[in-house]
Amino acid sequence: MDHAIAPPAAQRDERLRAVELLLSRQSANLLQEPAPEGAELDLILDAGLRAPDHGRLRPWRFVLIRGEQRQAWADRLAAAAMARDPENGPAMAEKSRAWVGRTPLIIAVGVEMKEGKIPEIEQVLSAGAAAMNMLNAIHLLGYGGMWVTGANSYDPQVNKALGFEAPSRLVGFLGVGTPRPMPADAPKIARPSRAQHTRDWTG
Ligand SMILES: Cc1cc2nc3c(=O)[nH]c(=O)nc-3n(C[C@H](O)[C@H](O)[C@H](O)COP(=O)(O)O)c2cc1C
Question: What is the complex's ipTM, to 2 decimals?
Fold first, then answer.
């Protein structure tokens, strides 16, 4: 196999910088306006569409919930919570409503499951990879994002409201916006130790 010619030093620096930026990603729970839109949002969605995908099924689907539609979405979640659990529904509905209200853009990531020789798990993994690629692009563009699931993600009524009927399914919601500045004394979460998570196979 031919080996690629090493890129010039300037390009290497650029690539290292790109990796360093990737390594600085953290989920952003506290978000504010603005959310990416227009060409920046297109870049984020395009990053999702670069996910690896066995069999070129292109199973990923992204549903954008933003602007005034968020109110209607919060109403849907509230109704779903009440139907799931009448006793705890009001509290769960309130929680969802608060999250939707303070999240400038929600990208619902789902998989439109294709029958055939590619196992379902691989299609779900591919949708997960699309979600991760979008989280990285969100970060690289200077925005913040967080992947959440919770009971809503597994609720068939919520899935249906987004166009995912079994075997198609949601893999989660990306909350997207501009990260709120963290308090100076907020604890820094260390990256996990490489040694604990990696080993050479020795037979
Ligand atoms: C599939 C999936 C579902 C998740 N669901 C939730 C969730 O419902 N609520 C939550 O607080 N964090 C959830 N998380 C975790 C956050 O997205 C995030 O990874 C975590 O807070 C760690 O932050 P970090 O990404 O900066 O390491 C989920 C992560 C994944 C991969």
Answer: 0.97
* CA–CA distances in Å: residue 45 to residues 32, 61, 150: 20, 10, 23
Nearest protein CA to atom 19 of ligand 1, as residue: 27
What stretches of 24-144 show up as alpha helix (H) in DSSP?
38-48, 69-84, 89-102, 120-140
Domain membership of residue 20 (yes or no) is: no
pLDDT digits 0-9 by tens, 103-132: 999 999 999 999 999 999 999 999 999 999
Residue whose CA lies nearest to ligand 1 atom number 9: 148
User: Does ligand 1 have an atom closer than 6 angstroms to the CB of 109?
Assistant: no
Total domain count, the chain? 1
Q: What's the pTM value of the predicted model, to 2 decimals?
A: 0.94
* CB 136 less than 6 A from any atom of ligand 1: no
Asked if residue 129 has its Cβ within 6 Å of ligand 1, the reply is no
**Does the Cβ of 172 fall within 6 Å of ligand 1?**
yes
At 124, which CATH number?
3.40.109.10
Nearest CA to ligand 1 atom 12: 148
Give the domain extent around 147: 29-65+104-181
- Tell me the backbone φ, ψ of residue 149, rounded to 5 degrees: -125, -95
